[in-house]
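re: the backbone from monday

yeah here it is again, tokenized this time
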């Protein structure tokens, strides 16, 4: 006899790979975020639970939000493309965010605000970087906003203090073992939620 809680786990987790979108939230000239995002993407590509791709917000046009109605009430064909389709297609997200004045970036907020349904009931993991606090304050702000978008922010994430000093000039982590536990926990957590929510969304 399978206990009720176990039945939920057995029936909740999809076995096929989930589509993971790694979103790079820094767009300024000379940014360090692309190094962090490339590392996250390469780690994601090692995981059998995901097929992973990168969305660089530099490649999209996000003006300050000026639409007459919120995206939650906007017809699908009026939402910004190809951003809407990319996010709609994804089952899970990792946002790679720096910390600017104890928050995350304005462009990232615009990218989140420009859609609604596309985010709903999908999991979000966060990799933050910055100075002493490793972008932790930006990550916490992002979690609050994610809940309002009906996403599921994972408990586990990666916090990278003084990130520029963590990678060598070729963009390789100098001490990969230091971040192995946190990125493994993050992807384990994200994979569980991605599978469970994918199955639940279908039903
Ligand atoms: C406008 C601005 C504000 C910043 N504020 C913070 C901060 O509050 N806390 C912190 O840890 N680092 C802060 N930093 C340092 C950044 O986290 C660090 O420069 C990081 O590399 C920025 O990411 P990027 O290079 O991908 O843009 C700030 C940097 C900028 C440009």
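seq for it, each position gets an aa:
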């Amino acid at each position: 006899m399978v206990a009720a809680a176990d039945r939920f786990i057995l029936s909740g987790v999809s076995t096929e790979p989930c589509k993971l979108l790694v979103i790079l939230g820094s767009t300024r000239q000379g940014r360090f975020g692309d190094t962090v995002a490339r590392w996250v993407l390469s780690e994601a590509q090692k995981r059998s639970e995901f097929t992973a791709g990168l969305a660089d917000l530099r490649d999209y046009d996000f003006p300050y939000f000026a639409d007459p109605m919120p995206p939650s009430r906007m017809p699908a064909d009026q939402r910004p493309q190809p951003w809407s389709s990319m996010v709609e297609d994804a089952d899970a997200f990792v946002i790679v965010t720096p910390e600017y004045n104890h928050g995350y970036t304005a462009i990232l907020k615009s990218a989140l605000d420009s859609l609604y349904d596309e985010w709903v009931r999908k999991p979000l993991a966060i990799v933050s970087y910055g100075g002493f606090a490793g972008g932790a304050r930006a990550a916490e702000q992002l979690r609050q906003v994610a809940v309002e978008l009906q996403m599921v922010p994972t408990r586990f994430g990666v916090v990278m203090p003084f990130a520029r000093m963590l990678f060598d000039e070729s963009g390789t982590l100098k001490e990969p073992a230091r971040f192995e536990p946190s990125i493994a926990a993050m992807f384990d957590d994200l994979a569980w939620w991605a599978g469970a929510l994918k199955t639940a969304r279908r039903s």
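The chain has six helices and six strands. Residues 26, 28, 31-33, 98-102, 130-131, 133 surround flavin mononucleotide (CB under 6 Å).
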